[in-house]
Amino acid sequence: MSRSRRTEALRWLTQAEDELKDAEMLTKAQRYYLALFLCQQSAEKALKAFIYDHIREPIFTHSVAELLKIAESIDPTFKPTSDAKRLDDYYIPTRYPNGLPGEVPSRYFDSSDEAVKALALAKEVFEHAKQRILKK
Predict the structure, then answer these.
(1) What percent of the chain has pLDDT over 90?
(2) Most CB within 10 Å of its CB: which of 6, 43, 127, 134?
(3) pTM value?
């Protein structure tokens, strides 16, 4: 049974919103490495939600930068959110010690400023995608 594009988009948008909320809680709890990872995940899923609302094919990339390019090709208003490609920096190194030679992610990522900036980028992408999906 195949879901409609709209249903699939809303599923992805819901997950993106929940992960954004979790990232906010983890930032307050000073669990920055997890907050940073969830910021990347939220932006990725919000972009996939927007894309799924317009095309049916599965999307296999996890890169916010690549997803932004796809979203921008559908709707040029995504261009101002392109700074969010920086969230890709948190996809691997926040989870794996071998992503940070000689370091441990849970100890390395220790900056509330970094987490707050990542949250702002993720929120910008989420809100932009949400507005484009819900206005349709």
Answers:
(1) 90
(2) 43
(3) 0.95
